[in-house]
């Protein structure tokens, strides 16, 4: 298993806890996800620290607002040299277009490689019953994910965040070069916590995922480096 394709989620509220994990995984993992909890509590400072340590950053804030607001929000975070960021596909095609435009304009202006921009399809905490309750009409999870992935592809986003169960379908309709990042990764026999659609790392890569995101199964372990090395070597 290629460790460069593993993203560890720093789901903490304090930078000290997050950086302790980064230090414990030094030499093994180089790619980290910063989500709402850590970003809202520590702000841009955590991004600067991770970059100073030479780490890659997946900024998972799931931007979802009117197009112009998302355009400005995306531009505001690009100065921190992030490598990957997310918008929510349900924000619509115009919003996704503006996010993509923000990345292109900023990268051209600064003469830097553009970060990958991904659309979040359906959260792994939602099953089909939840979708019916939220949307007020029946739709299969697979159909919704497929449609949202196609919309993201049409507006030239780099890929999507989606459950392992949808990877093959997304690759079939969007092409092998379309990036799929899969959250909800668990070790065998581990706790699912609040996620309903989960898989192991081996299952994710076997289905064709480009990257996996794993969090509490590693970060809440007493021996995080051993856990992730065992997973890589399994």
Distance between the termini: 8 Å
Largest sheet: 8 strands, parallel, barrel
The dominant shape is globular
* Tally of separate helices: 11
From the alpha carbons, calculate the radius of gyration and give it in angstroms: 17 Å
How do the strands line up in the largest sheet?
1-2-3-4-5-6-7-8
CATH domain topology: TIM Barrel
Order of helices and strands: EHEHHEHEHEHHEHEHEHH
Helix content: 40-55%
Would you kindly provide a written description of the structure presented here, covering whatever features stand out?
Residues 5-231 form the Orotidine 5'-phosphate decarboxylase domain. Substrate binds at residues 11, 33, 60-69, 124, 186, 195, 215-216. There is one protein chain. The protein has 234 residues and is of the alpha/beta class. It has a single domain (3-233), classed as TIM Barrel, CATH 3.20.20.70. It has 11 helices and 8 strands. Helix 4 links the parallel strand 3 (56-63) and strand 4 (84-88). The protein starts with 5 loop residues before the first strand and ends with a helix.
């Amino acid at each position: 298993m290629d460790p460069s394709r593993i993203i560890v989620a720093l789901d903490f509220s304090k930078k000290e806890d997050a950086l302790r994990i980064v230090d414990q995984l030094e030499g093994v993992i180089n790619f980290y996800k910063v989500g709402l909890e850590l970003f809202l509590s520590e702000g841009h400072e955590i991004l600067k620290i991770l970059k100073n340590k030479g780490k890659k950053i997946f900024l998972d804030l799931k931007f979802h607002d009117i197009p112009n607001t998302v355009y400005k929000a995306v531009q505001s975070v690009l100065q921190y040299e992030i490598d990957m960021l997310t918008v929510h596909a349900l924000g619509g095609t115009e919003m996704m277009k503006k996010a993509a435009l923000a990345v292109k304009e900023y990268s051209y202006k600064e003469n830097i490689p553009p970060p990958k921009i991904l659309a979040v399809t359906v959260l792994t905490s939602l099953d089909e019953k939840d979708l019916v309750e939220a949307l007020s009409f029946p739709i299969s999870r697979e159909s919704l994910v497929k449609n949202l992935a196609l919309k993201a592809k049409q507006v030239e986003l780099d890929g999507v965040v989606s459950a392992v169960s949808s990877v093959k379908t997304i690759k079939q309709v969007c092409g092998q070069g379309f990036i799929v990042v899969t959250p909800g990764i668990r070790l065998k026999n581990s706790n699912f916590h609040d996620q309903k659609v989960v898989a192991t790392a081996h299952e994710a890569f076997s289905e064709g995922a480009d990257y996996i995101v794993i969090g509490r199964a590693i970060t809440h372990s007493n021996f995080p480096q051993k856990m992730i090395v065992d997973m890589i070597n399994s």
